[in-house]
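Submission sheet (multi-component)
Chains listed below:
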Amino acid sequence: MSASAAKVPSRPTMPTCAFVPQPYSGPSRQEVLSMRREFLTPALLTYYRDPIMIVQGHMQWLFDETGRRYLDALAGIVTVSVGHCHPKVLEAVQAQNALLQHATTIYLHPQGALFAKRLAGTMPASSGLSVTYFVNSGSEANDLALLMARLKTGAWDVIGLRNGYHGMSATAMGLTALQSWRHSVPTGFGLHHARLPDLYRGPFREDDPHAAAKYADDVADLIRHCTPGKVAAFIAEPIQGVGGTVELPPGYLKAVYEIVRAAGGLCICDEVQTGFGRMGEHFWGFECHGVTPDIVTMAKGIGNGAPLAAVTTRADIAASLAQRLHFNTYGGNPVSMAQGLATLDVILGERIQDRAHEVGGHLKRGLSALQKRHSSVGDVRGRGLMLGVELVEDRVSRKPATAQTAEVVERCREMGVLVGKGGLYGNVLRIKPPMCITREDCDFLCAVLDQALSARS
Ligand SMILES: Cc1ncc(COP(=O)(O)O)c(C=O)c1O
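Outcome: structure written.
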């Protein structure tokens, strides 16, 4: 063996998995790629220089058409909560599929009512958050939350946060303030974006004890200058997901909720990525901030991959929508309800939240150890199993290491780990695996990241 070959470190060994994927017999990856280019919208994005095709999943593992196994550290963008094709979820969905796939909500069906009751049970006692409207996507849930807030308050203006992501329907796109996702045509009126309370990159940073209050002041300032002094709602994610795992500083939401309520507005919490135990210490992200919203929107993890979302609110707010007819054809369909109920059963029955806390803590410690070894790791943040690693060119200027981040994502894939990336500059690794991930998987992930960060492009 030559001296240079001897220097190449061996690839970290992937933990074993007894599951054997089925042989794949469909069109080739090249055929799928060319059909996609010709027949699907060019707006779809693919990860990786050489896009991969995923044809099967089992718990924290994904398989490509050749049977190659990957550790899924992004969970289909935080959508798969308890594991791909979790056997208990699969069993419930298959049983429901065999009985009835669709019945409109103009007829009674037990699943929706049962699921709504169970969801109410996950909300803090005496919060009054007990009434749910089921829809099919996070964007729809946010649209509906805004409509309810506007109907209830009689006000129109809504305040979100810069760098926030709330979806891609017309109204949700207007709320989404991440520049890379905004088209140059108006997508919403009366939507305002407050300064992002980012302790790593914002004007008030981790060394400023008054940062949270200073950022909250900007919401008051918006209400003074940009709205008629009244607002319908304030909406924020407890930790920004697509925006690059940006944590809101302690005390910020509490201060903002007071300001917004004093102006007659309602507070909406977008739990599309953060809910259902992923935070570890708490079931809902808002609980980490010691606040109770008026409206909670949820999607993704609620159904372990099903097109299922929901808006949960108080009865008085929900009543605002009943002034006229309102209808959603697929919202609350029995198959999605079965998937949601079974997912919640697994989350509660298999102590998934405790797992997110325990395994997520282990993973975060592993990532923080990498920060000590690699000067390009500027920040490690997040809670439970919603973690982010921000890469910088140097720690003083904090200049985003955008190109290096893209390389790291590629190298991780070569070594069998799928991670995401996000943030305004595309320089934050997003690590949000299915919550069945083990400590051993996390050690593997960190070993892979260690090598990916060490390699020179
Ligand atoms: C925080 C947040 N809200 C809303 C959405 C929109 O959800 P959907 O893509 O289901 O419309 C997303 C999607 O990534 C999200 O991350």
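Remark: The chain has two domains: 16-78+352-454, 89-349.
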